[in-house]
Amino acid sequence: MSDREEDRLEVYRIIQSVREVNKTIFYAFWNEEQHLDLTAVQHMALAILNKRPNIGLSELADIAHMGCSSMSGVVDRLTKAGYIARGRHEHDRRSLVLTLTPEGKDIMQKVDAMWMERVLPILDIPKEHLDMVLDIHKQMIMKLTPKGMNQLEQSSNDTTR
Predict the structure, then answer these.
(1) Please, what sign has the CA dihedral across residues 20, 22, 23, 25?
(2) Rg, C-alpha atoms of the chain
(3) Which of 19, 22, 127, 161 has the fewest CB atoms nearer than 10 Å to its CB?
(4) Which PANTHER family match (predicted)?
(5) Are the C-beta atoms of residues 6 and 89 closer than 8 Å to each other?
């Protein structure tokens, strides 16, 4: 097997592992929360608004790493459910801001309690291992984002001079 083929298989193995962890986390959440009629993405939107009330749709979408059109659908469903209220920005009456309703805060507390109970076993992993995983995730993000790619190109150019 060539070095290139070995590299390819190793990359697939790493990506598959990350996907499995992500899938397991979302499955655990969905499995626990399905009786609340709340999806993982909806919970994420509520959690963001709980920490950062009175933000607009585009800021909510940016924080959630989603497109505005996708987040708009999430917000519409949460508004219809009575969990989010749309209002006007106090300094710019043309801008809409989003806030949690009392029902939204209530469902957030219920979901957070259930969610934490479900994922808390992660903390049974030794802290130094968790710190290592988080550091590796940061490194992977840096290598796979434009900023990181530019740094990689720069260091490659520096070594070839």
Answers:
(1) positive
(2) 20
(3) 161
(4) HTH-TYPE TRANSCRIPTIONAL REPRESSOR YETL, TRANSCRIPTIONAL REGULATOR, MARR FAMILY
(5) no
